[in-house]
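During the reporting period, we have paired protein sequences with C-alpha cells. One record among many follows, to show the layout:
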Amino acid sequence: MKLGIVGLPNVGKSTLFNAITKAGAESANYPFCTIEPNVGIVAVPDTRLDRLAEMYNPVKTTPAVVEFVDIAGLVRGASKGEGLGNKFLGTIREVDAIVHVVRCFDDENVIHVDGATNPTRDIETIDLELILSDMDYMERRIDKCRKMLKGGDKKFEHELKVSEQIYAALEQGKSARTLSFSEDEQVYVKDLALLSSKPILYAANISEDAIGGPEPDYVKAVRVFAEQEGAEVVVISARIEEEIAMLEDDERKAFLEDLGLDQSGLDKMIQACYKLLGQISFLTSGPDECRAWTIKKGTKAPQAAGKIHSDFERGFIRAEIVAFQDLMDSKTYAAAREKGLVRSEGKEYVMKDGDITLFRFNV
C-alpha cells in the first residue's frame, strides 16, 4: 500500500514525512527542497497486536505497514512542466492514494508560494494540475481508440465511450474520482491510472498554537471542499507530530495527555489511509511471532492465506478463527476453544478485521 504526500511548496509535507518515518527528510523554507521522492515504511498502529504480544511474549512482533512517498511541491503549471512538474506527476501516478497536505496556518516566516494562505485556492491549484495532466493523457487515449475503430476493431467502442465520458468531466474541472462507473468500466478506468482518480485524504496542517482550541476557519474551508467529493479530512500539526515522533513511548503518552489528545494526528492519519483504501488486518499469533497482515476488505480465507505463503492458498483446507475480543475475554486460546469460540471456516469465508487466524493446509 503506497501513499503519496502531495501539496504546494512550504505547506509542511516534508515536516510531516519526517514525523511519519523519523527518516529526517530534508526540510527547508524554500520551494523544491525535496528533489528526489523520499520513501518511508510506517507501521500501522494496532493496539490489538500489542495485546497479543503481551499475551504470547513472542520472539518478534510484526505490524502491518504503509509506504509513504514524499513528493516535491507542485506549482501552477506543473502539468506543462513548470517547476519539477512532469517528474513528480509521474511519481503520483505510481501511488495507490494521495494524502494532500493543505496549509491551514499563517506564518510570516514561512513563505507561501502564492503569497498568502488560502486552503481552497491551494487545493484547486493541485487538483487543476492533476486534471490537466489527465486531460492530456485522455486526449491521446481517445485518439488511439478512434484509430483502432477506423481499422475495424469494434472492441474499442466501449473504451471510447468511457474515455469520452471521463474527458468531458475533466473538461468541466471535475476529478475522475467523482464519477461513477459500472464494474466492467471500473476495470478499464483502474488500468488508466489517472491522477485525479486516486482516492484522496486531506491533511489540514494547523499551527502548534491551534492544537486543542477551536477549529480554525481554514480547516472548515478544507472540510467544505472535501465534502463535495466525499473525501475525509484529518487535522494535524506537522511540527507537533515531528516533536512527538522523537519521543519514547512513555514520554509520547504524557505529551499527548498534556495536549489533551488520546491519539496522535499521525496515528489518525495512518488509520484513515488504511480505511481510504478499504484495507483491513487479520492477525496471526504464537510464541514465535505475532503479526498483522493487510488484506482488502471482502477477501476470502484462501486468498488471505496466500498473503502468508502461496502454498497456504494452494493447499488450503480450512481456517481456524477466533475474534480478537473473544480471545481477550477468554484470556487464553485454549479457553476460547473450550468455550466454542474458535470457529472452523471454509473457502467461502470472508475475512473480518481483527480475525485471529490459524490456516490449515496440505500441499
Notes: Residues 23-35 have pLDDT under 50 and may be disordered.
